[in-house]
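To assess whether ligand presence alters the predicted conformation, the chain was also submitted together with adenosine-5'-diphosphate. Input:
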Amino acid sequence: MASAAAPTTSSLSLAARRAAAVGPAAASPLRRGGLAAGCQPARSLAFAAAADPRLATHVASRCRQAASSSSRGTRAVATMAKKSVGDLTAADLEGKRVFVRADLNVPLDDNQNITDDTRVRAAIPTIQYLIKNGAKVILSSHLGRPKGVTPKFSLAPLVPRLSELLGIQVTKAEDVIGPDVEKLVSELPNGSVLLLENVRFYKEEEKNDPEFAKKLASLADLYVNDAFGTAHRAHASTEGVTKFLKPSVAGFLLQKELDYLVGAVSSPKRPFAAIVGGSKVSSKIGVIESLLEKCDILLLGGGMIFTFYKAQGLSVGSSLVEEDKLELATSLLAKAKEKGVSLLLPSDVIIADKFAPDANSQVVPASAIPDGWMGLDIGPDSVASFSSTLETTQTVIWNGPMGVFEFDKFAVGTEAIAKKLADLSGKGVTTIIGGGDSVAAVEKVGVADVMSHISTGGGASLELLEGKELPGVIALDEAVTVAV
Ligand SMILES: Nc1ncnc2c1ncn2[C@@H]1O[C@H](COP(=O)(O)OP(=O)(O)O)[C@@H](O)[C@H]1O
Ligand SMILES: O=C(OP(=O)(O)O)[C@H](O)COP(=O)(O)O
């Protein structure tokens, strides 16, 4: 946009105002804490506003500050901000067929009962907004990784829960495309929902086949992507379809995820601590390197610490070690030093004589792991020092458990960190749980509700934290900015 005057984020303020009109339904059910008060990037501001109307006023004001404080910053708005479903009014939506891609990939038990409905609940605000504005919602998702049509991966078990949460009867199609689906779509009244069958029953979905994407698009007038958990996949229903449907906009859940995982992490309230755990350093290299650019404190736990210990010349017994990553571990330690990041490794560990829930265990200093024993959790001194370090922070992001938390005996460190973050969240610290096993740990402890943000995407959140762009986000329309 060529203008001598600095562009402002007027469109974001508009988004904020429109989001405010959405009402409480637009607030994500996952959101419990407040947004970081630190200077957020403008994209995050827009997303915060749309995802949570309570933030609208704050966001509009922050957007003005961002616009006036830095023309460089506002250029970033123009290139990064995505158009939001909250930008669409009843005039845009009434009677329109809206293709909504959600991530309803929920766990089912042997009787096809949903065992964790988090993703269903997280999808509701966007659908509710569309229904209330008179749209005809064509809802699409995958479930599992079926190879062709597989009855156990049908989306049928989602219908009762969706209907209950939305307060209307959701209709289900037996297919994804084709004449029967087209007929059902043509019969949809305003403010109704048609759930398509598992989009991965067509191999063309994962191949991002343009003809298949075109057929999906032909069902609708416009597109909303709210499938954060699948936004790192360039599939027909997440990326391909945007080439045939305009506008293509972000849903409220997608916005909220980006708000926290990009916004709060890029411009955090400081001190900003990252806790990274999990099994292997190799699967977290990207995220550690990226976080070292942003955080003040990095706490490491989980199986990866033994590669760091060994790189420092300590004996690690039969703990998990990636021999080919010893140099990398050394260079990450050096990078932390160079960046002035305070990197903490556990000072003690809980070791086991075998990898089993009933293994014999003992607590030893990190420097004294005997041969034949393996470290499966961080020890009590480490929990205490990690906790007191976390006390000093204002923003914490956590990805990966501190130990083998699936075994009760070695879940203590992970559970203690989960409780500490819950405690900090209650004191106003922004706490972000970045998907995957850390979410399972937080849920196991029963403190999920108090965290500022719990991501609904494991792989997607990891890619975002690594600084990667997600195809499902990139493909969406840019928010319009205007010069004043
Ligand atoms: N000390 C350890 N030794 C072996 N495995 C571990 C250890 N600590 C944690 N793990 C395992 O790491 C796994 C999670 O790793 P990862 O997939 O990288 O994390 P996330 O899913 O949070 O991204 C868990 O299954 C856990 O049992
Ligand atoms: O569950 C999902 O990802 P996650 O296990 O990384 O959170 C998403 O629904 C994506 O599924 P996929 O990894 O089969 O593409």
